[in-house]
Automatic annotation (TrEMBL):
It holds the Pfam family ABC_tran. Transmembrane segments: none annotated. The lineage of its organism: Bacteria, Bacillati, Bacillota, Bacilli, Lactobacillales. It comes from the Bacteria. Residues 22-255 form the ABC transporter domain. This is Sugar ABC transporter ATP-binding protein. It comes from Floricoccus penangensis.
Length: 332
């Protein structure tokens, strides 16, 4: 069980002055201001949950994760993970958690992968018998045998991610922090990693805190989504609830015959909350179906322009978050 209560992190930042003289002043006689990166975050994560921790760039995700993993000390607030405090109980706490940062590796570049695991076994003091059992399980879930004898530097990005996840789980931690586990991978490889994450969560009841910008990760993996913006909670619930709260976004794509017709489409005059995107002759119309009727939008478009093709799609979380990231939705 993870309990976070009124967590805050302030950073001191150098105040930037205007123009060149301001920059010089900031360089030689800096004045500081306080920047609140994380503001009053509270949540509880029960054992075995896959907790999707999401937000736009700069929202405060990494800062929060760094506090939860014990790397950063909070300015104020309370964190308890399985009865331990990440900062005060640091030495014993690291044995309870596994951490994977998608962009960095904890593996030794020049060593064959299996040697890295042997080194980690010693670091985490995993008994031989447990190590053998664990490697069998991880091999099974992540198919490590394909490349376990190869030096890490020769692994593909997807293989390296599987290898990194295995490394973080070698000591059988109760909690796994996964930061962008599918970033930069092909669709097939992403699916493979997602299936492995699901299996680890189901078979071992490992609690997983997942940060991702990948909306398929969110939809396929997370039983709960916690979304922050500017350091503050803006949503806590399921993917379905997120859709409910932030609108039922639909999308209709029209292929128009003549580009000049575009100016005849003035959705804002008859409808509310309609967004138009144009790429050549393809016009994408996104709207909140709770405020507008799809058939009326369709009718309006067909009445005004000549169309050669139409496709209708119910929007997914991607559209919702995209809208949110563009600040088109307001927190209520
Ligand atoms: N050491 C630091 N000193 C000053 N400001 C910082 C520091 N670390 C982070 N920040 C600021 O705190 C805010 C939150 O940053 P953070 O890295 O937590 O965001 P994030 O949600 O993880 O973003 P991303 O998705 O881009 O990784 C940003 O405005 C960042 O500039």
């Amino acid at each position: 069980m993870i309990t976070v209560s009124h967590l805050e992190k302030d950073f001191k930042k150098v105040k930037k002055g205007d123009g060149l003289s301001g920059s010089f002043k900031a360089l030689f006689k800096p004045e500081y201001e306080t920047f609140e990166a994380v503001k009053d975050l509270s949540f509880e994560i029960p054992e075995g949950e896959i907790f999707g921790f999401i937000g736009a760039n700069g929202a405060g995700k990494s800062t929060t994760i760094k506090m939860l993993t014990g790397i950063l000390t909070p300015t104020s607030g309370f964190i308890e993970i399985n009865g331990k405090n990440p900062q005060k109980d640091r030495q014993s706490y690291v044995k309870d958690i596994g951490v994977v940062f998608g962009q960095r590796t904890q593996l030794w570049w020049d060593l064959p992968l299996e040697d890295t695991y042997k080194v980690l076994k010693e670091i985490y003091e995993v008994p031989e018998e447990d190590f053998v059992k664990r490697m069998n399980f991880l091999n099974d879930v992540l198919d490590l045998n394909e490349f376990i004898k190869d030096p890490v530097r020769t692994l593909s990005l997807g293989q390296r991610m599987r290898a990194d996840i295995a490394a973080s789980l070698l000591h059988n931690p109760k909690v796994l922090f996964l930061d962008e586990p599918t970033i930069g991978l092909d669709v097939d490889v992403k699916d493979r990693i997602r299936n492995a994450i699901k299996k680890i969560n189901q078979e071992e009841k490992t609690t997983i805190i997942l940060t991702t910008h990948d909306l398929n990760d969110i939809e396929q993996l997370c039983s709960r989504i916690f979304m922050i913006d500017k350091g503050k909670e803006i949503f806590d619930g399921s993917a379905e609830e997120l859709k409910e709260k932030f609108g039922n976004i639909h999308e209709i794509t029209f292929k128009i015959n003549q580009l000049e017709d575009l100016e005849k489409l003035r959705y804002e005059e008859d409808f509310s909350d309609v967004l138009l995107e144009q790429e050549d002759k393809n016009i994408k119309v996104r709207f909140d179906a709770s405020k507008n009727s799809a058939s009326e939008i369709l009718q309006y478009t067909l009445n005004n322009v000549s169309v050669s093709d139409v496709s209708i799609k119910e929007a997914d979380i991607e559209d919702i978050i995209r809208r949110f990231y563009r600040k088109e939705l307001k927190d209520d």
